[in-house]
Amino acid sequence: MRPNLVLAVVVGVLCATGVTLLLERSLSRVVLGFILLGNGVNLLILLAGRSGGAPVLGVTPPAGMSDPLTQAMVLTALVITLGMTAFLLALAYRSWQLIGHDEVQDDLEDRRIVRLAEQDRNSGPDDSLAEVARDPWIGGAGGIDPEQVDPEPPPRRLGDDPRPPRRPDREEADGE
Protein backbone atom coordinates (compact mmCIF):
# COMPACT_ATOMS: atom_id res chain seq x y z
CA MET A 1 0.00 0.00 0.00
CA ARG A 2 1.62 3.20 -1.17
CA PRO A 3 0.48 6.45 0.39
CA ASN A 4 -1.40 8.48 -2.16
CA LEU A 5 -2.87 11.96 -2.24
CA VAL A 6 -6.34 10.84 -1.16
CA LEU A 7 -5.04 9.27 2.07
CA ALA A 8 -2.90 12.34 2.80
CA VAL A 9 -5.96 14.57 2.35
CA VAL A 10 -8.01 12.28 4.62
CA VAL A 11 -5.31 12.55 7.33
CA GLY A 12 -5.30 16.34 6.99
CA VAL A 13 -9.09 16.62 7.13
CA LEU A 14 -9.33 14.30 10.16
CA CYS A 15 -6.64 16.19 12.07
CA ALA A 16 -7.98 19.64 11.15
CA THR A 17 -11.56 18.72 12.06
CA GLY A 18 -10.38 17.12 15.29
CA VAL A 19 -8.43 20.19 16.38
CA THR A 20 -11.35 22.47 15.47
CA LEU A 21 -13.74 20.39 17.57
CA LEU A 22 -11.26 20.23 20.47
CA LEU A 23 -11.40 24.03 20.70
CA GLU A 24 -15.18 24.08 21.21
CA ARG A 25 -16.82 24.58 24.61
CA SER A 26 -19.17 21.61 24.44
CA LEU A 27 -17.69 18.47 25.99
CA SER A 28 -19.46 16.22 23.48
CA ARG A 29 -17.71 18.09 20.65
CA VAL A 30 -14.41 17.82 22.51
CA VAL A 31 -14.89 14.03 22.69
CA LEU A 32 -15.63 13.85 18.96
CA GLY A 33 -12.63 16.07 18.20
CA PHE A 34 -10.38 13.85 20.29
CA ILE A 35 -11.61 10.74 18.46
CA LEU A 36 -11.12 12.32 15.02
CA LEU A 37 -7.67 13.63 15.90
CA GLY A 38 -6.66 10.23 17.26
CA ASN A 39 -7.87 8.47 14.10
CA GLY A 40 -6.07 10.99 11.90
CA VAL A 41 -2.78 10.53 13.75
CA ASN A 42 -3.19 6.73 13.68
CA LEU A 43 -3.73 6.81 9.93
CA LEU A 44 -0.68 9.05 9.55
CA ILE A 45 1.48 6.62 11.54
CA LEU A 46 0.14 3.70 9.52
CA LEU A 47 0.93 5.49 6.26
CA ALA A 48 4.49 6.13 7.47
CA GLY A 49 5.19 2.40 7.70
CA ARG A 50 6.40 0.22 4.87
CA SER A 51 3.76 -1.95 3.25
CA GLY A 52 4.40 -5.55 2.37
CA GLY A 53 3.70 -9.07 3.48
CA ALA A 54 3.08 -10.40 6.97
CA PRO A 55 6.07 -9.75 9.26
CA VAL A 56 6.57 -13.44 10.10
CA LEU A 57 9.95 -15.11 9.55
CA GLY A 58 9.75 -18.04 7.18
CA VAL A 59 6.53 -16.87 5.53
CA THR A 60 7.77 -13.64 3.90
CA PRO A 61 11.32 -12.76 2.89
CA PRO A 62 12.80 -9.98 5.08
CA ALA A 63 12.90 -7.48 2.21
CA GLY A 64 9.18 -7.89 1.54
CA MET A 65 7.91 -7.62 5.15
CA SER A 66 5.78 -4.76 6.33
CA ASP A 67 7.02 -2.67 9.23
CA PRO A 68 5.63 -4.13 12.48
CA LEU A 69 6.67 -1.11 14.57
CA THR A 70 4.08 1.20 13.06
CA GLN A 71 1.37 -1.40 13.56
CA ALA A 72 2.35 -1.81 17.21
CA MET A 73 2.35 1.97 17.68
CA VAL A 74 -1.13 2.24 16.17
CA LEU A 75 -2.46 -0.54 18.43
CA THR A 76 -1.02 1.24 21.46
CA ALA A 77 -2.50 4.56 20.32
CA LEU A 78 -5.90 2.92 19.85
CA VAL A 79 -5.89 1.67 23.43
CA ILE A 80 -4.86 5.08 24.75
CA THR A 81 -7.53 6.80 22.63
CA LEU A 82 -10.18 4.38 23.89
CA GLY A 83 -9.22 5.06 27.51
CA MET A 84 -9.22 8.84 27.04
CA THR A 85 -12.55 8.67 25.22
CA ALA A 86 -14.10 6.73 28.09
CA PHE A 87 -12.75 9.30 30.57
CA LEU A 88 -14.03 12.27 28.56
CA LEU A 89 -17.44 10.63 28.13
CA ALA A 90 -17.62 10.12 31.90
CA LEU A 91 -16.79 13.81 32.40
CA ALA A 92 -19.44 14.89 29.92
CA TYR A 93 -22.05 12.62 31.52
CA ARG A 94 -21.24 13.92 35.01
CA SER A 95 -21.42 17.50 33.77
CA TRP A 96 -24.80 16.76 32.21
CA GLN A 97 -26.04 15.29 35.51
CA LEU A 98 -24.84 18.20 37.63
CA ILE A 99 -25.67 21.27 35.56
CA GLY A 100 -27.95 20.01 32.78
CA HIS A 101 -25.61 20.76 29.86
CA ASP A 102 -22.08 20.00 28.80
CA GLU A 103 -20.84 23.53 28.14
CA VAL A 104 -17.52 24.37 29.75
CA GLN A 105 -17.78 27.76 31.42
CA ASP A 106 -15.04 30.35 31.86
CA ASP A 107 -13.11 30.03 35.07
CA LEU A 108 -13.23 33.08 37.36
CA GLU A 109 -9.44 33.04 37.56
CA ASP A 110 -9.22 33.15 33.75
CA ARG A 111 -11.45 36.22 33.68
CA ARG A 112 -9.31 37.91 36.34
CA ILE A 113 -6.11 37.20 34.39
CA VAL A 114 -7.62 38.64 31.20
CA ARG A 115 -8.74 41.76 33.07
CA LEU A 116 -5.25 42.23 34.57
CA ALA A 117 -3.65 41.72 31.16
CA GLU A 118 -5.89 44.42 29.66
CA GLN A 119 -5.00 46.82 32.49
CA ASP A 120 -1.32 46.04 32.03
CA ARG A 121 -1.61 46.71 28.29
CA ASN A 122 -3.11 50.15 29.01
CA SER A 123 -0.45 51.17 31.55
CA GLY A 124 2.96 52.58 30.71
CA PRO A 125 5.97 50.32 30.33
CA ASP A 126 7.59 51.08 33.72
CA ASP A 127 4.65 52.20 35.86
CA SER A 128 4.60 49.16 38.12
CA LEU A 129 8.39 49.01 38.52
CA ALA A 130 8.65 52.67 39.48
CA GLU A 131 6.21 52.16 42.36
CA VAL A 132 8.16 49.15 43.64
CA ALA A 133 11.44 51.03 43.39
CA ARG A 134 10.11 53.90 45.56
CA ASP A 135 8.62 51.70 48.30
CA PRO A 136 11.30 50.67 50.85
CA TRP A 137 8.98 48.09 52.45
CA ILE A 138 8.76 46.08 49.24
CA GLY A 139 12.50 46.09 48.77
CA GLY A 140 13.12 49.16 46.68
CA ALA A 141 15.87 51.59 47.58
CA GLY A 142 14.97 54.71 45.69
CA GLY A 143 17.32 54.84 42.69
CA ILE A 144 16.92 51.31 41.32
CA ASP A 145 17.19 50.94 37.58
CA PRO A 146 13.87 49.30 36.49
CA GLU A 147 15.68 47.50 33.67
CA GLN A 148 17.79 45.50 36.12
CA VAL A 149 16.40 42.10 36.84
CA ASP A 150 18.30 41.49 40.06
CA PRO A 151 19.45 44.85 41.46
CA GLU A 152 22.26 44.99 43.98
CA PRO A 153 21.47 46.28 47.48
CA PRO A 154 22.41 49.92 48.14
CA PRO A 155 25.93 50.41 49.53
CA ARG A 156 26.17 50.57 53.33
CA ARG A 157 27.78 53.48 55.08
CA LEU A 158 29.88 53.26 58.19
CA GLY A 159 27.59 53.09 61.21
CA ASP A 160 24.51 51.86 59.32
CA ASP A 161 22.46 49.19 61.02
CA PRO A 162 22.71 46.02 58.83
CA ARG A 163 19.20 44.90 59.85
CA PRO A 164 16.32 46.06 57.64
CA PRO A 165 14.02 48.72 59.11
CA ARG A 166 11.05 47.38 61.04
CA ARG A 167 7.58 47.91 59.77
CA PRO A 168 5.30 49.95 62.04
CA ASP A 169 2.63 47.23 62.08
CA ARG A 170 5.28 44.62 63.15
CA GLU A 171 6.39 46.74 66.13
CA GLU A 172 2.85 46.88 67.47
CA ALA A 173 2.45 43.10 67.10
CA ASP A 174 5.71 42.44 68.98
CA GLY A 175 4.62 44.63 71.88
CA GLU A 176 7.58 46.99 71.75
UniProtKB/TrEMBL annotation:
It is a multi-pass membrane protein. It is found in: Cell membrane. Its main location: membrane. Residues 153-170 have a biased composition (Basic and acidic residues). Pfam families: Oxidored_q2 (PF00420). Residues 119-176 are annotated as: Disordered. The chain crosses the membrane at residues 6-23, 30-49, 69-93. Keywords: Cell membrane, Membrane, Transmembrane, Transmembrane helix. The keyword DNA-binding does not apply. NCBIfam families: PRK07946.1. Belongs to the CPA3 antiporters (TC 2.A.63) subunit C family. This is Na(+)/H(+) antiporter subunit C. The lineage of its organism: Bacteria, Bacillati, Actinomycetota, Actinomycetes, Micromonosporales.
